[in-house]
Amino acid sequence: MPLEEDTLAALRALANDKRAQILLWLKDPRAHFPRQVDGDLVKDGVCGRLIASKLKVSQPTASEHLKVLTQAGLIRGRRIKQWVFYQRDEARLKAVQRALARL
Question: Which of 13, 69, 94, 99 is most buried, judging by how many CB atoms fall within 10 Å of its CB?
Fold first, then answer.
């Protein structure tokens, strides 16, 4: 049975070490990121600037990784003021796990 295109997109997104690392950090944001001025780490997500800083990459590079993860449906972005805050889409991640378990 072939994998659906959305599952393949998720696998391609996860094939990059930095994107996989972002997902791991977002699983427990309080353990991996400092407190934010705007937005709660868990309720609102993690600011893209904090993610870029932790990855030790430029904001445009981090934005590209976050864009790929968002397009694959693995994370969601939420704008607060001029920043975008990211959190995992747990339902989508579980769906990808179920699809992989069927292999």
Answer: 69
Pick from 14, 2, 3: which is nearest to 65 by CA? Answer: 14
pTM summary value: 0.91
Domains and CATH numbers, the chain: 5-97 (1.10.10.10)
Tokens of 83: 């920043």
Spatial distance between the Cα atoms of 7 and 93, rounded to a whole number of angstroms: 10
In the DSSP assignment, the letter for residue 27 is: H
Between CA 15 and CA 36 the distance in angstroms is 29
| Interval 29-52: pLDDT, tens | 999 999 998 889 999 999 999 999
CB contact at 8 A, 22 and 55: yes
Give the list of residues 6+ apart from residue 89 with CB closer than 8 angstroms, or none.
Answer: 73, 74, 75, 76
